[in-house]
Amino acid sequence: MELGFLKPLFDRPGPWASVYVDTTRATEDAAKMQELRNRSAASQLIDAGADAYTVRAVTETLAREPVSGAPPGRALFATGAEVVLDVPLAVPPPAIQATWSILPHIAPLTGLRGDEPRCLVAYIDHTGADLELRDRPDRRIVGRAQGKEWQGRGHRSIPEDRYEWHYRNKVENGWNETAEIIAGEIARAWPECGADLLVLTGDPRERRAVHNRLPECVRAVTVEAENGSRSPGASKRVLDQQIAEACERFAHERLQGALERFYVGRGRPGEHREAASVDTGPGQAAEGMPAVVDAMRKHQVATLLLTPDASDARREVWIGPGVDQVAVQRSQVRAMGVAKPERARADDALLRSAAAAGGEVLTVPDGIRGPAGGLGAVLRWSM
After folding, report:
1. Are residues 364 and 276 in the same domain?
2. In the chain, is it the N or the C terminus that has fewer CB atoms within a 10 Å radius of its CB?
3. Domain around 224
4. Are 77 and 156 part of one and the same domain?
């Protein structure tokens, strides 16, 4: 999961109200159930010690939610009488959860928002392309590429006259120029939209021409899909299924690749290991809470590996107001110049640091061997 969307949570001090609710509406009494859900969330916050103004901000936000058309779940984060972030969830939480803590309780997002990659879809035809960013559940157009106007009026049948060769050559050159324009627009939009996966759809010849002109770093995360059309009103049902399968493969391969680098680079639990005889990819590994906390504080972590509800994730660490002020021992945080260190959950503190450093977090699901204690990291470099 990419963490950049969490940064607004770390610009102000806590304490924070963190609320996770199921927003599915499958019954006739949906409005009544919504009211009871909102009361339960408010009651939990009040019992936890939240101030009345922040509780009111949360309940008013929940009350404005439509009875139908909502995502499966929502996570709200509020402080100082204001809801700072409202996150749609891909998976409904199993129960209403409302907490009041020094840090926003963001750890459940790793399981409820999902590890599905952010996907850029290029709908290509012989006149240009539309670029759509899919960041579940949102979809929006983030760019368009347009080729030469004459080409839009043309077709691929060749006139039967003495200019046949010149016509064919003109069409071919025109399409090559259009493919260059589309590839250039994709390369421009790619870093801005923060996508993980590129899907090219359209005529096989046209999408292959664009594929071949993409920068190497983008080609490495590009797949081609059938059944997509740029035409207004075209059905996307089959394409959506193909994109979902591509995203699932991408997420699986990304997790497996990170775990392989972790397995090679790790030492004994709680220790870093210098592996001079093997190539471990982008870095070494850290395993166990002390090692991961130390690596996170030094900005070494490239990928944080987290098993939900693992023992280490629920342990407490000491933090200061700065995103890098995190340690296992209180005295370590005091040595950073923090007069009054606070206790916080390890997973929330580590996710805060990872988000601020531009790192990623991958959830290790049940049934897959992950780090001991549920916390591990692939490092950018070893010490």
Report:
1. yes
2. C
3. 119-235
4. no
Per-residue tokens: 380: 């950018």
Shared domain for 104 and 124, answered yes or no, is no
In a domain, 248, yes or no: no
Last residue of a domain, one of 87, 112, 137: 112
Beta strands in the chain (DSSP E): 16-22, 73-79, 82-89, 97-101, 119-125, 128-135, 138-146, 197-202, 222-225, 285-287, 301-306, 316-319, 326-327, 342-345, 360-363, 375-379
Q: Are 90 and 118 in contact (CB under 8 A)?
A: no
Residue 34 pLDDT exceeds 70 = yes
Domain count, the chain: 3
The CATH number for 158's domain is 3.30.420.60
Tell me how crowded residue 290 is: count the other CB atoms within 10 A of its CB.
18
Cα angle for residues 59, 62, 68 (degrees, 5° grid):
155
Mean pLDDT, rounded, of the chain: 84
- Kindly list the strands in the beta sheet with 97-101, ordered across the sheet, starting from the edge strand earlier in the chain: 82-89, 73-79, 16-22, 97-101
What's the pLDDT tens digit per position in 141-172? 999 988 765 444 444 455 555 555 444 555 55
The pLDDT of residue 152: 42
Q: How far is CA 29 from the centre of its chain?
A: 34
Which of 92, 112, 132 is the C-terminal boundary of a domain?
A: 112
Residue 251 DSSP label: H
